[in-house]
Design goal:
By secondary structure, the chain is α/β, with parallel strands linked by helices. It is built from 17 helices and 8 strands.
């Protein structure tokens, strides 16, 4: 099946970015939302993305107008009756998404594929409310969609292999790098990224290091931005919701840091509210508010200051350990896990991804440090069983000639 026309449901930031990416590839796309005015705001967002390219000399004004002819706006789902693929990009609310999928199932042609841009919710649960679960899957783009090459393709329990092949081909046709990921909470990238971000927050909360030191140490490692800069950019409310979903599915090792929950309750959501772990737009007047330091002090009143030891290995090995667990579970191959983290999060290319990184420092060392962390910091660092099996087998990484990869 070839995708000739696409519908995007949701005219917000991600929906607009996805529509722009599709139009770049020369495929007609219609943006729909609850009202015509909202949908047209999405259309204007698409134009602004293109205009930024014009301003940088990457395309001409004439080319901008040609591309904009491929993008239209509509209210309701009537405009989706002849599309081959619908990509839903609304808020991370399972009930809302299920309601939309019921309506899309009724409005779209029987052969249309229904995809969700959800970053963590169950694809099988979305497919279950339709009469076409074989044609429902996840198609998760990363923000900003026009710059990030990775897309996760997530089949549900009922998804047909032909649907997967069609969407993988479509993703490649719009110049993305698709990775097929077995369904699980958080899928692949967010499941690995959240323990990394959460451990940075826990380290700050416990007084192990300052916010700036943690960010600087991780950028020195090679990450494109520090974890707190990334959290502010993504939005702490969104990160908190992903953390909640992961905690519900995986238990105590994914428990959100109390500081993350306190930040959300205090309205410190990041760049979108001009205040998160960092302050933005300081020239604007604002009401008195709780600072990050005050929120930490409030937590200390309940728990007492812990003053744990900081090392950049804490967030990095939290990510590595989760990567090993996903490999054990068959969520993705070792190659795809590393590719996803490089393409989806900016994990340093010279270190090739968390599993290559583990091979580089040695599986025995990874196991030793995780065992030490689990004793001193908590059971969230309990090593993945595969690590011990690898050490026992002598598959200890690059120096041994084999670990997660062959050398």
């Amino acid at each position: 099946m070839y995708i000739y026309r696409v519908g995007v449901v949701g005219a917000g930031t991600m929906g607009s970015q996805i529509a722009q990416v599709i139009s770049v590839a020369g495929i007609p796309v219609v943006i729909t939302d609850v009202s015509r005015a909202t949908a047209e705001r999405g259309l204007e967002r698409v134009r602004r993305i293109y205009q930024a390219r014009v301003d940088k000399g990457k395309m001409t004004s004439e080319q901008l107008e040609e591309k904009m002819l491929l993008v239209s706006a509509a209210d309701g789902f009537a405009a989706l009756k002849d599309v081959d693929l619908v990509i839903e990009a609304v808020s991370e609310d399972l009930r809302l998404k299920q309601h939309l999928f019921r309506e899309l199932d009724a409005a779209c042609s029987p052969g249309a594929i229904l995809a969700s841009n959800t970053s963590a919710l169950s694809i099988s649960a979305l497919g279950s409310v339709t009469k076409r679960p074989t044609k429902v899957l996840g198609l998760h783009f990363f923000n900003p969609a026009y710059a990030m090459p990775l897309v996760e393709v997530i089949p549900g329990l009922g998804t047909d292999p032909q649907t997967i092949d069609t969407v993988v081909g479509f993703a490649e046709s719009i110049r993305k790098a698709p990775i097929v990921v077995k369904e699980c909470a958080g899928f692949l990238v967010n499941r690995l990224l959240m323990p990394y971000l959460n451990e940075a927050i826990v380290s700050l909360q416990e007084g192990a290091a300052s916010l700036k030191q943690i960010d600087q140490d991780l950028t020195a490692f090679g990450m494109p931005v520090g974890p707190f800069t990334l959290l502010d950019t993504l939005g702490l409310d969104i990160c908190g919701e992903v953390a909640r979903i992961l905690h519900k599915s995986y238990g105590p090792r994914m428990a959100p840091a109390p500081l993350l929950e306190a930040m959300v309750k205090a309205g410190r959501l990041g760049v979108k509210t001009s205040r998160g772990f960092y302050e933005y737009n300081l020239s604007q007047p604002r009401e008195p508010e709780q600072t990050v330091e005050q929120l930490i002090q409030a937590i200390w009143q309940e728990t007492g200051p812990q003053r744990t030891r900081w090392t950049q290995a804490r967030p990095l090995l939290a990510m590595v350990n989760e990567a090993v667990l996903t490999l054990q579970e068959g969520i993705a191959s070792a190659r795809d896990i590393d590719l996803a983290m490089v393409a989806g999060t900016g994990f340093p290319q010279d270190k090739e991804g968390p599993l290559h990184y583990a091979d580089r420092i040695g599986i025995e060392q990874v196991l030793h440090e995780l065992e030490e962390f689990s004793q001193t910091l908590g059971t969230r660092f309990w090593p993945a069983p595969l690590l011990r099996r690898m050490v026992d087998a002598g598959f200890t990484g690059r120096d041994a000639g084999r670990g997660f990869f062959m050398y």
